[in-house]
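Checked the freezer inventory, then went back to the computational side. Two predictions to log before the end of the day. The first one is the construct we discussed on Monday; recording sequence and tokens without edits.
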Amino acid sequence: ADCSSINHTGIPMPWNFGAHAEGRGKSLLLFLSSTDAHLEQTLDRLATLDELARSFLEHHQRHREAFINNILLTLTVATAVFMPAQLLAGIYGTNFVDEDGNPGIPELRWKYGYTYFLLSSVSVIAVGLLLAFVCLRGRG
């Protein structure tokens, strides 16, 4: 469409939002009013999208934090289960001997020393885990 209008003399005039009409400037007011309504509608839509994006971000952060908490719980439980065994394996695995070559740890001199050590270690760990489970269950 052409942005010009023809006046009563037939000479093209630039389009000026109805300033040449009898109600001078009315079409400009209509245009600005319409533009204002569209801007308000767009602002409402943007506010809704912003709220939706914030909600999505909060949900994602909660999901990520729960996932990390589950991983940390798993690692903590694995550490609690395997740490005592690693400590005892480190102590008894060093093969302490005196100057005669005899083991320095008395249990290692017994006929079933390693068996007693294994059974006592497993029972101490099991009792510790049972106590920890009972204490944690009592809290929750």
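The second is the one RB wanted added to the comparison set:
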Amino acid sequence: QYVKGASTGSSAASGLEGLVMSPLVVNKSDANEPSNIDDDSGLWKPLVRPELSGGLSVKLRFIFGQSRAKEVATLGLDPSNPSTVCLQAHIENMRTDVGTLRHVRIVHRRGASGGSISASKVILPPEISVLKK
């Protein structure tokens, strides 16, 4: 349900009336139900486009809520720490010639640039080390 706001008369805000959404009401019984990672995650953001990278497609999304707490605890981190960020990556070979991608390297680079804060600790799931063999 949308709440209509009063028009401010500003040219930047004109046409945006009615786009403010009222807060969602959460039942306490829903908080105890098992979480679904698709419900507790953001939109997929493309990082690497296949048409520019020889067929490699990489997308990321943020995981939050109960799914974040579960995944962070699985990795041995404190889920109550608000500075812990949980990302889900989707890596796919989308080559049209049915060729294989021989090497995909995931590199953690340290150093702040452009106002970004570098990660102090990066933990990859065990599947990544299995792919090296």
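For RB: Strands lie at 2-3, 20-21, 45-48, 56-63, 86-93. The longest strand covers residues 56-63. Let me know if you want it refolded.
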